[in-house]
Predict the 3D structure of the following.
Amino acid sequence: MTVGIERLAVYVPGYALPLGELARARGVPPEKMTQGLGVESMAIAPPCEDVVTMAASAGARLLRAARVDPETIGMLLVATETGVDNAKPVAIFVHELLGVGRRCRVYELKHACYAGTAALMTAADWVRAGGGKRRRALVIAADIARYALGSPGEPTQGAGAVAMLVGPEPKALVVDAETATYADNVYDFWRPIGRREALVDGKYSVECYLEALGGTFTAYRAGEQPLLGPGEALSDRLARLLYHTPFPKMAMKAHRRLVEIDWRAAPARWAEVGPVLEEVTAASYRTAVAPGLEAVARVGNTYTASLYLCLASLLEAEGAALAGRRLGLFSYGSGCCAEFFTGTVPADATAVADAGVEEMLRRRTVIDVAEYERLARASEAGGEPPPGFTGEFVLHGIRNDRREYGRARAALAA
Ligand code: HMG
């Protein structure tokens, strides 16, 4: 049965901090952030915005664009590691804000950045098994990446949400059933209950990511092996490769590792390719990876949403050219769990390629470091939306330990 992503929509907070300015304020050469990490700017959420309002804004954009009646959604999954309550799921607030019907399975998923893929795979399996009875699943990945001010992780923050309609008529990506997973209990990145900012063993987290990539890709390739000739690399068969991207340089490191594993497993060509591996990797990075990094370089890490922001931005830019072509996707969540899977861009992808990424990024207000620090300290306090707010929903405040949400005034007027 054909199953996949019918359509995507993106929401990114309306405020952007250029990383060159952050570098200057922290006394670091700007090139360390812009070239060393590959980040241009990062999205900052104002105090009236949390993961619920971001997820609902992406979901509302999606339902409107796809002309889907919220009553017809049979499963609503929200993947996040920025949860707002230890028991009450983000998904149930979103369920109310979007007006989804009561005959719906609703829950939140958590496994660091991997949860977005966990939700997509759960929804795809549900559709394949016929659980939806012709109803579709709405999957939303949303997060605010926060590290302590002045810490090494600070330039790898960001915020955003991606909503995906999962069903039997995929017009954005047909998701292949064959996937490969990898899991290991590691302390590379974590956020103990009660802490707002994540703790991270940064360099170790990069190693864990690459180890998990090797584990999933080796397993996936072993399954694919009979389809490949002895002198073929799987990466050559994939038109684009998308990686979970905490910062763009991580995708570059990941691609280097993947290409090496891939060619080493093709012994008939390894003697020829091995000595020029750096050139082979650099060339395929330019064509297969760089096009998917445009948006993440301007948004930063969006944890669960990161891989899907890459997908949305790639389809928006190249959906028509990629029609009928296969993509490889690697998802990593600290802690850790990872998955490598593939999907094909359908022939009519052009009709749904507009996920709203460019439009969202164009409308952003550029802020300085003082404003960023003010917003970071006040985050999730609730209140009136500041000038330039682009969200559809706001967090009014938290009273008696209860979060109160409503529609943004601009959205009400629209
Ligand atoms: P750091 O100590 O700031 O940076 O930490 P560095 O000293 O390693 O430098 C970074 C790069 O800049 C290096 O390049 C330097 O050479 C280069 P590399 O050697 O790696 O290719 N550099 C320069 N380049 C140009 N001009 C210069 C210059 N100076 C240095 N003047 C680190 C970097 C990523 C560790 C830090 O930012 C951090 O801890 N980030 C958070 C953790 C993270 O993002 N980990 C990624 C893998 S884990 C993951 O993806 C999961 C995650 O998304 C969470 C989840 O699953 O929920 C994080």
Observations:
- The mean pLDDT is 95.
- Residues 29, 31-32, 35-37, 81, 112-113, 152-153, 156, 188-189, 200, 202-203, 205-206, 209, 244, 246-247, 249-250, 301, 303, 332-334 surround 3-hydroxy-3-methylglutaryl-coenzyme A (CB under 6 Å).
- The first helix runs from residue 19 to 26.
